[in-house]
Write a structure and sequence with these properties.
Blueprint: H1 20-30, H2 38-48, H3 55-70, H4 88-102, H5 104-120, H6 124-128, H7 138-150, H8 160-167, H9 173-178, H10 182-192, H11 202-225, H12 228-232, H13 243-256, H14 261-288, H15 292-316, H16 321-340, H17 344-367, H18 375-403, H19 409-429, H20 438-451, H21 455-499, H22 506-515, H23 523-550, H24 553-558, H25 561-606, H26 615-634, H27 637-668, H28 676-689
Helix pairs in contact: 1-2, 2-3, 4-10, 5-11, 7-17, 10-16, 11-13, 11-15, 13-14, 14-15, 15-16, 15-17, 17-20, 17-23, 17-27, 18-19, 18-21, 18-26, 19-25, 20-21, 20-27, 21-26, 21-28, 22-26, 23-25, 23-27, 26-27
Length: 714
């Protein structure tokens, strides 16, 4: 590799391709064992076509170079058969390094191109914006991403951020970039990174951009970290002692002293302190409530702190391979984040996960009240569910009466929704239980038990809580269904005695029975749809409670001057406490009532036969129909099939709502699905060892007979 076979760079070579003799000579020199290898021929043509002028042609050449590196044909053992194997990209990178070491003219052309690209492009946006949310809130960021997807983006050839996504257009490129050999990249950078004057040094230009990015990130992060809702949720840190205020000063020192080691160490310490404040804010979200915008800002701060640390590691690393190892990690993360932040769906998923977790946790607190442990609690659940069945029977009768009124669809929906909602609120106010409300909230409690503690502790919690949930659910079903049936029959008999006619006409009774048939109607499909509505209502309840806490409505009511004047100080406080206690149930009950009423109206509007099948309401309807049909009618096959349909409806109501709630809770708490199989196996073993605990409460402890006194007198 003495004299280069190619001519020095000139403008004429871009117009006249190399001769076959020149190509062959080049291939023999750099690939004597495989002179016809396409990688060698392609790199020769690539290095001969280095553009001398214009930023756009130079960026296009960089694209071609990366595409050549990304090809799947390895350039292995072209000179030495004993050369160790390596990744395809590294073999091609090694070939490029070998060629540039032996071809001074080509090396000079590439060096001039690298210097011109770095001088003509700015990296501030690349290091301080790419991969970081751009707006100040969730809605602004979502709108910006949506606009970028729909509208064409204007080219920005003067920014290195344009080059990153241009040469690495797919998300998988981030992994490829991270796996490149830092040693080979360092060799390549040494060859082409030190141009002769008057060309500027590329490293100096990029280093200055990284320092500017560090300062910009510090300013933005300091502003976000000192906002009011952040301060309110980190009460243990005073404003003057906030590390976010110190962050700006530390970055000023890094800039003034050209990233001296002691300033970088102080920056790392300050970033850690800022991260502790973010953790404190996250811990206070449960007590103070959470909003989408707050979750968004927390994510923005976290990622900005991570970016500052990554930049500091690059600035502080020694030149050569150590620095390029850090730089490749930074570039890979930049690329991965850049592709993620083009997606509206990713933004929604990331922000919704934490919000969902807080809502699910609030539902989980409610779920603890629906899980029994002792025998007394089990019987109390049956009794409270019986009260729920009694109220439901009245609501079923009310729905039939409202159906006889000639109301417009909107007013029909409003009337039926109010009928349901008032019944559900009455059940809550009286301390009664509705069985189908349990699955969504108990699933959240179950997910909390699974996510807390080490794996062994989680397994023990699961084995303990699953039997309690199943027998509590069965107790609620027994109470609801055991009371709604006689209550509905009693209402039908009372109506007939008072009016002299059955509550339902024979035709209406037959239609009701037919609507509950398990396979001759859409009853099972409607039961699954009702399960979805039951789950949605629990989410709405969690959201309302979170809203009440986040807006501090209880505190506002407790200190409201008008309320204090009317109710007194203690009365206003009781009202505030009552709102906080009842918010979740109120949101759940009202939402469920109007969702159940909406389906029929919505079906008419879109032309689909939509309806709902709620197990307690279904049994109440069937009982009223049986009262109209008489003893002979309830023994007919269709009526008995409808009775089986009610059982299937209850199963689907429970299964769908519980599965949806558990799935969302598991995802919100980041529980790995790989743990599902061991958990299921443990529950199966528990069921085989003690099936009774899944259906009935524990037996009362055996009473130890008192010792019989013995007369020991002589």
């Amino acid at each position: 590799m003495n004299a280069p076979p190619s001519s020095p760079p000139s403008s004429s070579r871009n117009h006249h391709g190399p001769s076959e003799r020149e190509v062959d000579a080049f291939c023999v020199q750099y690939a004597p064992r495989a002179p016809g290898h396409p990688a060698v021929r392609d790199v020769y043509r690539l290095l001969r076509d280095v553009p001398e002028e214009g930023l756009e042609p130079r960026l296009a050449w960089v694209e071609r170079w990366v595409a050549w590196l990304r090809e799947d044909i390895p350039a292995h053992a072209l000179v030495d058969a004993s050369e160790p194997e390596g990744p395809i990209a590294d073999t091609r990178l090694a070939l490029m390094v070998r060629v540039l070491e032996g071809e001074p003219a080509m090396r000079a052309a590439v060096t001039h191109l690298v210097a011109a690209v770095c001088e003509g492009s700015r990296g501030l946006k690349l290091f301080a914006q790419v991969g970081l949310p751009a707006g100040q809130g969730f809605l602004a960021e979502a709108g910006d991403r949506l606009a970028r997807k729909v509208l064409p983006a204007a080219p920005e050839p003067g920014k290195l951020s344009e080059l990153l996504l241009r040469v690495f257009p797919v998300p998988e490129d981030a992994v490829w970039l991270a796996l490149l050999s830092p040693a080979l990249v360092a060799k390549l950078a040494f060859l082409v990174g030190e141009p002769k004057p008057p060309d500027p040094m590329p490293g100096t230009r990029v280093r200055a951009d990284m320092m500017d990015a560090l300062m910009l990130l510090a300013v933005q992060t300091s502003a976000l970290g000192t906002l009011e809702d952040m301060r309110d949720r980190s009460p243990e840190t005073s404003f003057r002692a906030s590390p976010f205020l110190r962050l700006r000063r530390v970055c000023d020192a890094v800039l003034a002293r050209d990233a001296a080691p002691d300033t970088l160490r102080e920056l790392t310490t300050t970033v850690d302190d800022c991260r502790q404040v973010v953790g404190s804010v996250s811990r206070h979200l449960e007590a103070a409530g959470v909003s989408v915008d707050l979750v968004y800002r927390l994510e923005r701060i976290r990622r900005s702190l991570e970016r500052m640390e990554a930049i500091a590691r690059v600035l502080g690393a020694p030149r050569g391979e150590p620095r390029w190892r850090e730089a490749l990690g930074l570039l890979s993360d930049l690329l991965r984040r850049a592709h993620e932040d083009r997606s509206v769906g990713d933004l929604v998923r990331r922000n919704a996960r934490m919000l969902a977790r807080k809502i699910i946790e609030r539902a989980g607190h409610s779920g603890e009240h629906y899980i029994t442990t002792t025998r007394a609690e089990f019987h109390e659940m049956v009794h409270s569910a019986a009260g729920g069945g009694l109220v439901t029977a009245v609501a079923v009768a009310g729905k039939f009466l409202l159906a006889t009124l000639a109301l417009a669809p909107f007013f029909a929906w409003l009337a039926v929704g109010l009928n349901y909602a008032v019944a559900f609120i009455l059940i809550q106010a009286l301390g009664f239980t509705l069985a189908t409300k349990q699955p969504s909230v108990t699933a959240a409690t179950l997910a909390g038990a699974v996510s807390d503690g080490a794996r062994g502790e989680r397994l023990s919690s699961l084995i303990d809580i699953i039997p309690r949930i199943t027998r509590s659910q069965l107790a609620a079903f027994a109470g609801n269904l055991g009371c709604v049936l006689p209550a509905a029959v009693a209402l039908a008999l009372a109506w007939q005695a008072a009016v002299g006619a059955p509550f339902l006409s024979p035709a209406k009774a037959q239609a009701t029975v037919a609507s509950l048939h398990p396979w001759k109607s859409g009853s099972l499909l409607f039961a699954a749809l009702t399960g979805v509505l039951l789950w949605l209502s629990s989410v709405a309840g969690g959201w309302l409670e979170n809203f009440v806490v986040y807006r501090r409505l209880p505190e506002a009511l407790a200190h409201h001057r008008v309320l204090r004047r009317v109710l007194g100080v203690s009365g206003a406080r009781r009202l505030a406490d009552g709102l906080l206690h009842a918010a979740s149930g109120l949101g759940t009950n009202v939402t469920l009532g109007f969702l159940l009423a909406l389906m029929t109206v919505l079906g008419r509007f879109i032309g689909l036969p939509l309806d709902i099948r709620h197990v307690t309401f279904a049994l109440g309807q069937l009982a009223l129909a049986g009262g109209a049909l008489g003893p002979q009618g309830v023994l007919q096959p269709d009526f008995l099939a409808a009775l089986g349909g009610v059982a299937a409806i209850g199963t689907l109501n429970f299964a769908v709502s519980f599965s949806l709630a558990l799935g969302v809770a598991v995802r919100a708490r980041d529980i790995p699905f790989a743990e599902a199989l061991p958990f299921l196996r443990a529950v199966a073993l528990r069921f085989r060892a003690d099936p009774r605990s899944f259906f009935l409460p524990p037996k009362p402890p055996a009473e130890v007979p008192a010792p019989v006194p013995v007369d020991v007198r002589p």
